Amino acid sequence: MKTILAALAAAAAFPALAAPESYSLDSRHTFPSFEVNHLGFSTQRGRFNKTTGKVTLDREAKTGSVEVEIDAGSVDTGLDKLEEHLVGEDFFNVAKYPTLAFKSRSMTFSGDKPASVSGDFTMLGVTRPLTLTIHAFNCGVHPINKKNVCGADASATLKRSEFGMTKYVPGVSDEVMLKIQVEAFKD
Predict the structure, then answer these.
(1) pLDDT tens digit string along 49-63?
(2) What are the backbone angles phi and psi of residue 76, rounded to the nearest 5°?
(3) Taking the model in full, what pTM does it have?
(4) Which of 89, 72, 78, 87 is nearest to 167 (CA)?
(5) N or C: which end of the chain has fewer CB within 10 A?
(6) Residue 1 domain-assigned?
(7) Does residue 11 fall inside a structural domain?
(8) What string of DSSP letters covers 26-49?
(9) Does the residue 6 lie in any domain?
(10) Residue 185 and residue 52: Cα distance in Å, rounded?
(11) 69 with 53: CB under 8 angstroms?
C-alpha cells in the first residue's frame, strides 16, 4: 500500500507534459495572398486558391513547425489575361516551378501564442530565409463541425528579384507583401 501511495504522490509531483499537437491546413479557409505596387499608382492584389500544409504546436514547450505548399497555378487576380501572364515565364513560370513553399526552422511565442515563424521560402526554385509575423492567433472548437481548429493571420515582405522574378521591376514593385490567413484542424 505504501508503494502505491508513493507512486501516486510521485505522479502528482511531476504532471504529464503536453504533447505536440498536429494540425492540417483547411484549404477552404487558407488563401495566401500578395500585394504589389503597380507603377506607383495603386496596390494590385492576388491570391492563391490551392494550399496544403501542416502545423505542429507544443504550447507547453513554446515550439512548433509549419509547412505550407502553394499551387502557383492557382493564382487568382480576378483578371483572366493577367493570370495567364502570371503563370508564364515572366512571373511564376508554373510549367517549370509548379509550387511555392514555406518550411519553418523556428517559432517564437509571446505568452502562450505564436508570434512569428522563421524558415525558408522557395519560389522559382530559389530558397531564401523568410520570417512570417503572426498578427492574430486563436484556437477553439469549430461551431459547425465541432472539431478543434486554430486560425492565424501572418505576413512578411519579400523582394521578388531575390528569387529571380525581375520582370517589370521597378514599375511593378520589387517589394511584395505576402499575407497568409490560415485555418487548420487538429489531426
Answers:
(1) 999 999 999 989 999
(2) -140, 115
(3) 0.86
(4) 89
(5) N
(6) no
(7) no
(8) -TTS---EEEEEETTTEEEEEEES
(9) no
(10) 12
(11) yes
**Number of domains present in the structure of the chain:** 1
Give the HSE-up count for residue 155: Cα atoms under 13 Å, Cβ half-sphere. 10
d(C-alpha 47, C-alpha 174), whole Å: 17
Which DSSP helix (H) or strand (E) runs through 114? strand 113-123
pLDDT tens, residue by residue, 68-108: 999 999 999 999 999 999 999 999 999 999 999 999 999 99
In a domain? residue 85 = yes
Amino acid sitting at position 43: T
Grid cell, residue 13, equals 509531483
Across the chain, which distance is largest between two alpha carbons, in Å?
Answer: 80
Structural domain that includes position 49: 18-186
The residue type at 107: M
What is the β-pairing status of strands 126-141 and 148-159? Answer: antiparallel
CATH number of the structural domain spanning residue 104: 2.40.128.110
Give the whole-angstrom CA distance, residue 4 versus residue 130. 52
Residue type for position 178: L
| Contact (Cβ atoms closer than 8 angstroms) between residue 157 and residue 176 | yes
